[in-house]
Amino acid sequence: MVTNGNGAAQCRKIEILGIAEYFSALVISGEIGSRKPQSQIYQEALKALGNCADRAWFVGDDPSNDIRPATAVGLGTVWVSDGKPWKASEECKPIMQIRRFADLPALLRGTTNI
Predict the structure, then answer these.
(1) Alpha-carbon distance 82 to 55, whole Å?
(2) What CA–CA distance (Å, rounded) separates 94 from 78?
(3) Phi-psi bin for 83: left (phi > 0), alpha (psi -120 to 50), beta?
(4) Closest CA to 73 of 49, 89, 97, 96
(5) Cis omega (within 30 of 0) on the bond before 94?
(6) Spatial separation of the C-alpha atoms in residues 23 and 87, rounded to whole Å
(7) Tens of pLDDT along the chain (114 residues)?
(8) Rounded to a whole number, what is the largest CA-CA distance in the chain?
(9) Neighbours of 75 (CB within 10 A)
């Protein structure tokens, strides 16, 4: 997981959501000094995962700050649409799409249609 913010606050959110078990690595901007959409934060995540971009996914809700930079470093992407259509003008179309972050556990378990 790559997330912007304060380390303690982001860890608390992840705990409340109960999603930590789904992630092999956690990179928080406040802990490394780089924020999305800077490529360094994505590179740190890849390094933590053993540089296996071909087996890692990035889930985000912002085409410019999430999908485009994650695609640029070779990650597969899942866009959280919030019911909005993907704009044709956006480059780097995501590989998968879900409506809400709450749909992520079902996607990870393979029990949702995307």
Answers:
(1) 25
(2) 6
(3) left
(4) 49
(5) no
(6) 29
(7) 899 999 999 999 999 988 888 788 899 999 999 999 999 999 999 999 898 888 888 999 999 999 999 999 989 999 999 999 888 666 788 999 999 988 988 887 876 554
(8) 37
(9) 23
Pair 19, 10: CB distance under 8 Å: no
- Answer whether the bond into residue 37 is a cis peptide, omega within 30°: yes
Cα 94 from Cα 109, distance rounded (Å): 19
Q: Which residue has the tokens 């705990």?
A: 15
The kind and range of the H/E element at 28 are strand 27-28
Q: What is the CA radius of gyration of the chain?
A: 14
Residue 85 burial (10 A CB sphere; 0-12, 13-18, 19+): exposed
Under a CB-based contact definition with an 8 Å cutoff, are residues 64 and 86 in contact? no
Three-state DSSP class for 101? helix
